[in-house]
Amino acid sequence: MRMELPEHKKLVYETRFPVRWGDMDAMGHVNNSVYFRYMETARIDWMMQAGMPPAPTGDGPVIVNAFCNFYQQFAYPDVVRLKLYVSDPARTTFESWITMEKDEAPGVVCAAGGATVIWVDFLQHKATDLPQWVRELTAA
Question: Which residues of the chain are modeled with pLDDT < 70?
Answer without folding.
Answer: 1-6
